[in-house]
Write a structure and sequence with these properties.
T6A_TsaB; 233 residues; five-stranded mixed beta sheet; Nucleotidyltransferase, domain 5; ATPase_NBD; cytoplasm; 2 domains; 32% helix; alpha/beta; six-stranded mixed beta sheet; Gcp-like_dom; globular; single chain
Length: 233
């Protein structure tokens, strides 16, 4: 992994920064419901100093593009754009739901992950992922924001067991217990910059970067609630 990528995530109450430099990792993380805008830049400075790198020496910046807290996602986009403009770096947006799938693999070896973030308003941000041989993840449905009871009614029965990642499993334990497949909720509650950085390295290898001005958040609200991806039944 001969790439140098700095990733940040402020999409939930978990605030984190990670820097990967030729397979070496430098990470800062903190659960803090407020103050992300004040905490994230000092974290960036810390990992850069620890690694001996400067922004201008990096290959790209990555960020959790959502879904998540409206304010938190905007903070992450804005800070990433500011840093990228200053250092003339490309940007890699990464799904926070997919990042939780990677976190579940990193921490628990899970290869089938159902990610559910508490979206408030009696809804969850939802996505299911299957790990691929190259270390990436296949999304089984389009990520969405949806009421748990509607989600339950739209899911098909499956024999496979899933690792449940995210705060949605605790917030809507009763409602989601009606899903027609087994889910074992785990300890991965939030997206983390370390997993965003890992996924960004795969995106970098595929040439999937954007200009700083093209970096945009994904909120999901006011979009179509849920649909299967092409080829899924």
């Amino acid at each position: 992994m001969s790439v140098k990528i700095l990733a940040i995530d402020t999409s939930t109450e978990h605030c984190s920064v990670a820097l990967v430099v030729h397979s070496q990792w430098f990470v800062r993380r903190e659960v803090s419901p407020r103050g992300h805008a004040q905490k994230i830049l000092p974290m960036v400075d810390e990992v850069l100093k620890e690694s001996g790198m400067t922004l201008n020496e990096l290959d790209a910046l990555a960020f959790g593009r959502g879904p998540g807290s409206f304010t938190g996602v905007r903070i992450g986009v804005g800070i990433t754009q500011g840093l990228a403009f200053g250092a003339a770096l490309p940007v890699i947006p990464v799904s926070t739901l997919e990042a939780m799938a990677q976190g579940a693999y990193r921490q628990a070896g899970a290869t089938l992950v159902a990610a559910a973030i508490d979206a408030r308003m009696s809804e969850v941000y939802w996505g299911r992922y299957r790990r691929q041989e190259d270390g990436g993840w296949q999304a089984l449905e389009s990520e969405c924001v949806i009421a748990p009871e509607i989600l339950v009614s739209q899911m098909n029965s499956e024999p496979e067991s899933w690792y449940g990642a995210g705060t949605g499993w605790q917030a809507y334990q009763g409602e989601l217990s009606g899903l027609p497949f087994r889910v074992d909720p785990g300890d991965v509650l939030y997206p983390d910059a370390e997993d965003i950085a890992f996924l960004a390295t795969l995106a970098w290898q595929r040439g999937e970067t954007v200009k700083a001005e093209e970096a945009s958040p994904v909120y999901l609200r006011d979009q179509v609630a849920w649909k299967k991806l092409p080829g899924r039944t």
